[in-house]
């Protein structure tokens, strides 16, 4: 079975019948056996432990970008890459070698340079998908293609299964299930990985410029807290105790602030045993940060700077280009609107902290908003109604300020508006990107809030918090006034790239 022009579709891409894949694998396994038999140091396996590499493909492409068609450099280089295109024309074979970053260079294997035996071995042994090392002069072909005129070559590793068709788009399901193939086949997949790395580096640089320290807090916790979410439960054999995968690092980061780390942040994984959709994943990367002697206004300013600097790091400006080609402006000063005022304006009736739950229940029934009775508080109705009336209309980045008290047990009460807390949610393109607080630092009030949460838990609210005595003991040693924020890294990538959450995660959880 020969492969001469391009990669063929793989089993994972769903384009080849199982028997075709099986046949190709059998042919490739036979070639591996031949490699094994021909290696002098066969004890080391069918492939060399290392191959010569003097330059990356990207370096050569940069260095010889202006090379004229047909020109020779007189420079010998050794490069390695994956064969993604192959064409045999008798006395001359052509192959495109692709590096991990997507850069390609042409390898030209000629009878005149390598001899008949080596040329025939290339034809017999090299398949699409193989990793190959080539050494030779750097030239430009007559068509202007940067090339290596090969004098020596070796198979560094053989692909036993065929690649997906590099000229046919993989389905989203295939991309997330076989991300390794997606990275080979699609520039955007590689670009997203690079963008994520740039975003994380930018966040750390911005925090460093503001004097923040990065720390790590426990993933396994004896009690879940720091957010309203359903946790994953596991069991420790060593401690013979049930533990929780953390839903948020908040309560430990606040302990750090109590201990004197006045500006602290963490970028790490959170786990929530909830639904999965285009904006939610059970496992996700989270940024949380706390700044002593600040409040929710100061932390909003910092959050805007963090996001805008991340956009610049990826796109070169605060105007980003999404995967569909649309441009989105993350620049300028972002609007700050009141949750209650915006809900009143959108619903056409006055809704305030003192609005009764009966009025809210009636409005919810009128517009088809359902709130389960076990979580049916004033605040829950207000937030669900706000999402119904307002959320989808927010395109520009917008801080939605001042939330109901009873849904925000870790937040300080508003300094001038009774019944609300100093909390904001940042919405971009209609989805929540980040949240920020003036943190509740009074342990007496915090205990009262925890007790109220425990009552909700007793009524069947799986997301309600429990009384955390260790955290309360830390607060009782004195926590300064603090502004805090949390932001999903995956969602930040969504805002910058326009992709769904499963595309921004390198290896997302799938069934």
TrEMBL record:
Keywords: Aminoacyl-tRNA synthetase, ATP-binding, Cytoplasm, Ligase, Magnesium, Metal-binding, Nucleotide-binding, Protein biosynthesis
Binding site for Mg(2+) 2: 432
Limits of the Aminoacyl-transfer RNA synthetases class-II family profile domain: 196-508
Cofactor dependence: Mg(2+)
NCBIfam families xrefs: lysS_bact, PRK00484.1
UniProt-recorded name of the protein: Lysine--tRNA ligase
PROSITE patterns the record matches: AA_TRNA_LIGASE_II (PS50862)
Cross-referenced InterPro entries: Aa-tRNA-synt_II, aa-tRNA-synth_II, aa-tRNA-synth_II/BPL/LPL, Lys-tRNA-ligase_II, Lys-tRNA-ligase_II_N, Lys-tRNA-synth_II_C, NA-bd_OB-fold, NA-bd_OB_tRNA
């Amino acid at each position: 079975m020969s492969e001469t022009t391009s990669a063929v579709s793989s089993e994972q891409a769903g384009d080849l019948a199982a028997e075709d894949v099986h046949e190709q694998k059998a042919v490739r396994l036979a070639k591996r056996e031949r490699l094994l038999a021909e290696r002098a140091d066969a004890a080391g396996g069918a492939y060399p432990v290392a191959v010569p590499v003097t330059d990356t493909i990207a370096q050569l492409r940069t260095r010889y970008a202006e090379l004229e068609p047909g020109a020779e450099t007189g420079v010998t280089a050794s490069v390695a890459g994956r064969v993604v295109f192959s064409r045999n024309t008798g006395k001359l074979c052509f192959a495109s070698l692709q590096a991990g970053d997507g850069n390609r260079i042409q390898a030209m294997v000629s009878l005149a340079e390598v001899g008949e035996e080596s040329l025939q071995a290339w034809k017999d042994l090299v398949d699409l998908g193989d990793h190959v090392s080539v050494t030779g002069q750097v030239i430009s072909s007559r068509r202007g293609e940067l090339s290596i005129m090969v004098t020596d070559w070796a198979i560094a590793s053989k692909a036993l299964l065929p690649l997906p068709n590099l000229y046919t788009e993989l389905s989203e399901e295939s991309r997330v299930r076989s991300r390794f193939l997606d990275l080979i086949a699609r520039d955007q997949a590689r670009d997203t990985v690079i963008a994520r790395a740039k975003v994380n580096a930018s966040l750390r640089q911005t925090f460093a410029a503001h004097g923040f320290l990065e720390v790590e807090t426990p993933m396994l916790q004896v009690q879940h807290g720091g957010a309203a979410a359903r946790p994953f439960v596991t069991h420790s054999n060593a401690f013979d105790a049930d533990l929780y995968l953390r839903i948020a690092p908040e309560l430990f980061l606040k302990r750090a602030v109590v201990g004197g780390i006045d500006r602290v942040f963490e970028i790490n994984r959170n786990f929530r045993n909830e639904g999965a959709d285009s904006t939610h994943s059970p496992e996700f990367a989270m940024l949380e940060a706390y700044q002593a002697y600040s409040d929710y206004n100061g932390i909003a300013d910092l959050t805007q700077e963090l996001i805008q600097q991340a956009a610049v790091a990826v796109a070169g400006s605060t105007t980003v280009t999404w995967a569909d080609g649309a441009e989105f402006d993350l620049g300028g000063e972002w609007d700050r609107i009141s949750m209650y005022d915006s809900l009143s304006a959108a619903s056409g009736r006055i809704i305030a902290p003192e609005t009764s739950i009966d009025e809210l229940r009636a409005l919810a029934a009128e517009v088809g908003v359902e709130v389960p009775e076990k979580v049916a508080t004033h605040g829950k109705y207000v937030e669900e109604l706000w999402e119904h009336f307002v959320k989808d209309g927010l395109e520009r980045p917008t801080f939605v300020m001042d939330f109901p008290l009873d849904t925000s047990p870790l937040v300080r009460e508003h300094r001038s508006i009774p019944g609300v807390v100093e909390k904001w949610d940042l919405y971009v393109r209609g989805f929540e990107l980040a949240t920020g607080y003036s943190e509740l630092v009074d342990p007496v009030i915090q205990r009262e809030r925890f007790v109220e949460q425990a009552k909700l838990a007793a009524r069947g609210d799986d997301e309600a918090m429990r009384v955390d005595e260790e955290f309360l003991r830390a607060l009782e040693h004195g926590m300064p006034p603090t502004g805090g924020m949390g932001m999903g890294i995956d969602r930040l990538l969504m805002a910058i790239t326009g992709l769904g959450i499963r595309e921004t995660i390198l290896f997302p959880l799938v069934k």
